[in-house]
Amino acid sequence: MRIISVGITCLAFVVFKPMGLDALGLMLYLHFLAIWVLGVGVCYFTEGVVTHILGMPTSLDKGVEYVIRRNLWFQLINTPLEALFICAYLHFPMSSVGAADPLSWKGILQAILLLAFCSFIVGLYWRYKFRSRFLALELEETRELNSQLQLLQKETEHRVKKNEEEKATPVTPIEQPDVITLTGSTNEKVMLSVFHLLYIEAVGNYVKVVHWLDGQVRSDMLRATSKQMEDTLHTYPMIVRCHRAFIVNLGQVEHFVSKAGSMQLVMKHSHDTIPVSRSNVVAIKEKMKGIL
């Protein structure tokens, strides 16, 4: 990518010939071959600065916005460096033919403006390429998650059915091992089957518990935090955090979808869409593999 970008930039210098470069004649092409090598070296230097000093390594796993932000930092650092090195290199051949010294404020400014223009054009191209590549990876990741989800739900349904068949005597709802009671800091409480829980959403100082009951989607408010709910449900591997404001039951997820560069969950029954933060995608994948 860097080699192609520097090559396009050098071609623009040869075509537009700023700073009186036409005075070099045919030698201009030979010098810009050397500048192309120099430019690639400067790109690698900038890459090291962005990666190790700014702490922004190359990664598609962090999302397309991260890639765009990282490339912006790269351009902000690389453009003035490239202009300075190009002008410093051209100082000697330009002086030998009696042309104006490019290593001046005017020459450096002209180089920066042309480099900025080239960076904008080339950046649009690479932004499209990176976005396409990222969306393709995200689509493949979504397919993989949906495949794992189907296997997980089939396994869970099989276990539930087997557990019901093994019951020798009927039990009251409160004695059933799958029935849970969620409480808050007040007297309110919600009793439900853990298999019927859809999701829990943090709403200010409350949490909204959305669940399936008697053929309807119900939602109850409790004065509690999502962290308290997470601690209460930590023994149930199907209950996972997918976002700082949402805890979901994977058994009630209809499917994963990729939308506008982000990942979402579509819930059964309610068909609500729940966001999945990039930091939780890996954790969800690992938990699903662990259950299977």
Description of the molecule:
This protein has 292 residues and is α+β, with helices and mostly antiparallel strands. The chain has six helices and ten strands, in the order H-H-H-H-E-E-E-E-E-H-E-E-E-E-E-H. The protein has helices spanning 2-16, 27-53, 64-96, 105-165, 226-232, 278-291, and strands at residues 179-183, 189-193, 197-203, 206-213, 216-222, 239-243, 246-249, 253-259, 262-267, 273-276. The strands form three sheets. Strands 5-4-3-7-6 form a five-stranded antiparallel beta sheet. Strands 8-9-10 form a three-stranded antiparallel beta sheet. A hairpin with a 2-residue loop joins strand 3 (197-203) and strand 4 (206-213). Helix 1 packs antiparallel against helix 2 (27-53). The radius of gyration is 30 Å and the shape is elongated.
Helix segment tally:
6
Average residue pLDDT: 83
| Overall 3D shape | elongated
Number of E-type strands: 10
H/E series, N to C?
HHHHEEEEEHEEEEEH
Question: If strands are numbered along the chain, what order do they take across the biggest sheet?
Answer: 5-4-3-7-6
In oligomeric terms, what are we looking at? single chain
- Rg, nearest Å: 30 Å
Beta-strand residue fraction: 15-25%
| Termini Cα gap | 40 Å
Low-confidence stretches: 168-176
Helix content: 40-55%
Q: In this structure, how is the largest beta sheet organized?
A: 5 strands, antiparallel
